[in-house]
Amino acid sequence: MGFVAIDRSPAGIPQDVIARDNARLMEAHLADYAALAARLERQNIDIEDIVDKLMTLEVGLPSWGMVSGGTRFARFPLPGEPSDVFEKIEDCAVVHQLSGLTPRVSLHFPWDKTDDYAALRQFGESLGMGFDAINSNTFQDQAGQKRSYKFGSLSHSQQATRQQAIEHNLQCIEIGKQLGSKALTVWIGDGSNFPGQVEFTDTLERYLESLKAVYGALPSDWRLLIEHKMYEPAFYSTVIQDWGTSILCAQTLGPKAQCLVDLGHHAPNVNIEMIVARLAQFGKLGGFHFNDSKYGDDDLDSGSVNPFQLFLVFNELVYADIRAQGKFRPAYMMDQSHNVTDPIESLLNSARAIAGAYVKALIVDRAALKQYQADNDVIMAHNCLRLAFETDVRAALAMARIRKGGAIDPIACYRASSYRALKAEARKYDPHLGGGIV
Ligand code: LRH
Ligand code: MN
Prior knowledge:
438 residues, alpha/beta, six-stranded parallel beta sheet, three-stranded parallel beta sheet, 15 helices, 11 strands, binds 6-deoxy-beta-L-fructofuranose, binds manganese (II) ion
């Protein structure tokens, strides 16, 4: 059975809308680009090198972020939001079309369950979209599920429940193979709310025994990404609570197991960029869930609260890539919850923030930085980073978008297309549709 396209409104943004909006902004853009080129040239940096490198940056989109997110208090659906995985991929294609940065979507199962994955893959490819890491879900009970995950999943005290969770992860790998994905992300909510509720060591041993079975089923060219999180839904202990536990598990499992860093999964003020450096140093940095937060796992737009931290993370990633002679390829993905914005606009903004952090990290004068660090010239070493962070690189980001057929001003172009309004007319609107998080 072929894929079921349920609405006939245009897929994507009409090219003439993009061309018209770019024409409106082109003269000012070229002036800004020339000014930035001259500024970087004074630092012996060729802006064309920077744009070429930026053209290789790819960030995966979270399928679950394509609908309005919510909290335990409420979710406020957006008219015209996707109602199934096909419509989610359509909207992902719009983000990629305008940003040029997001050619893959990361699916979550069973939230994105459908009955023909070959058709889904074909549909995605017809819109220029591929499939990033697959996310399993053993933190919710599905209708008709035999054994509950209330007291855990891969680390549950009872073998039968662990086996159920293992089989779900094996099914996710099978789906991923059909979609051309190359990684499985395993985040579990397993933990406890009371001292004494679980025995820490036994619980982690059960988790490792379960994950060994999942690891054993991975195709040779796949990665298993272990995602740590300090708390929630468990509020006293969490089985994979921090990067230390995650790297020990990844080292125990084998070379295909690596750690995924979700920026929101750490206590406030934790030095996440140093965690990134550590995981990269030991060859276990497999991927990211980019977002931002002020308090807990707020899943806010990347770079919207602490853009300097995002820059410092990319500063470590650029350095790790230099140390790896350019062969350092963690899976960059976003994991955000868009509770009060149009998800497409938030993802366009976030893709731009991520690209901006990367470009600013690329223009750090590393030779000067290394010398100032060797000389313990603290201020000059710090200012090497500050100078790069304070450089307005937006013209370089816009040039990369133009060269990928995207928009100089993605948000303005998206609004000029009336895409969401057209989708609100065309798509069925079900305010009770759960985006997954709620
Ligand atoms: C857990 C998490 C995980 C996903 C979920 C949607 O907080 O970050 O990556 O499975 O959000
Ligand atoms: Mn995450």
